[in-house]
């Protein structure tokens, strides 16, 4: 292994950082490539980030980057054994099995490489870029929301059909540049991290950009017609409040920001017809969903859904065999290769997929390391000094959800989970804390 350093003797990870930035950009624009630019290559572009992940891992090993830990070891062993069981006693489809194995073999490993080579400065720079992209994304969402599903901007994967998902009042949930609306939901959660951070911190930011991106976020949320997007942003906001309430001055600042946000929403509702329409459509969808949920209410429907998605699969896991040879079958791509149609052959939720694909032993081990990692980064971020905890802890508001409940069978959600978790570790690494991250086999 070869070490690469700059003139000051510090590690020089320029090539790795470029590759990680490319991974990030492909995460955002993969859907655009599959829908609008290269629709004929929609299927192979599903794994467009995999070669980048392979390059980053190989290059990191060559440069001697210290990223190996117990999380990676457990993930590798569990996946390799599951791969062997699948090919020997399971469905025996090599391509499906490899497609499932790549999630933990490649992308999960990338989390720790990002954490090792990125600095807090890199994280903040990525945040500034996100604020700019938010303006473009919201403009695309506006046209998708207001255009018929037959319009080019709403074309589906491969240039066929429509990419919009069922919404309310005849409007469909827009996907933005992503393949599906789930990508757009997590994108706005990601954007909200830096909207809250730049408002609450003393970090330098071009104020007109921050104001414009804040307004764009407020406008976009109802246009997504996604309860998940709104809840995800609310969770990030809660983490921001917890991290920033360190003095009377910060409490006052929070109150002022809350009043300004509320004032913006009132003005938009009164004078923006598209925002008013989006709000009405969003609330209609909430009412429809409430009618299908025992107890009703926006909070009840979301809370019951979250509780069920977390505890239901854990209970179901206990009913699984010790070992299962279904690796890759729980992904839509794997299901299509095996059955000829896109469907959930195992489970839609993540823990159910892991248990159904790999059984109690190996599936359970992967569930545990993801939960432990989420708890570990949240605790360490919260323990940082008050002047350093804001960014990593606000990032935890979305990273922990992505680690514990993120549907990694979907490539966009997988990429998102990798990026946000890696950025949290990068913030901890900047404070010389990464070596202290709880290692499950130490």
In short:
This protein is mostly helical and 442 residues long.
Describe the protein.
By secondary structure, this protein is mainly alpha-helical. Strands 1-2 form a two-stranded antiparallel sheet. β1 and β2 form a beta hairpin. α3 runs antiparallel to α13 and α8 runs antiparallel to α14. The longest helix is centred in the C-terminal third of the chain and has 34 residues. It is globular, with a radius of gyration of 22 Å. The protein starts with 13 loop residues before the first helix and ends in a 12-residue tail after the last helix. About 1% of the residues have low confidence.
Question: Would you spell out the secondary-structure blueprint of this structure?
Answer:
Layout: H1 14-37, H2 50-63, H3 70-89, H4 94-117, H5 120-146, E1 165-168, E2 171-173, H6 181-200, H7 207-224, H8 227-244, H9 248-271, H10 273-291, H11 298-317, H12 332-339, H13 350-383, H14 386-405, H15 411-430
Antiparallel strand pairs: 1-2
Helix pairs in contact: 1-2, 1-15, 2-4, 3-4, 3-13, 4-12, 4-15, 5-6, 5-7, 6-7, 6-8, 6-14, 6-15, 7-10, 8-14, 9-10, 11-13, 13-14, 13-15, 14-15
Category by helix and strand content: mainly alpha
DSSP E strands, number = 2
Radius of gyration equals 22 Å
Low-confidence stretches: 431-436
Distance between the terminal alpha carbons, to the nearest Å? 24 Å
Oligomer: single chain
Work out the strand percent: under 5%
Mean of residue pLDDT values: 85
Strand order of the largest sheet: 1-2
What helical percentage do the residues reach? over 70%
Q: How do the helices and strands follow one another from N- to C-terminus? A: HHHHHEEHHHHHHHHHH
**How would the global form be characterised?**
globular
Number of helices in the DSSP assignment:
15
For the sheet with most strands, the description reads: 2 strands, antiparallel
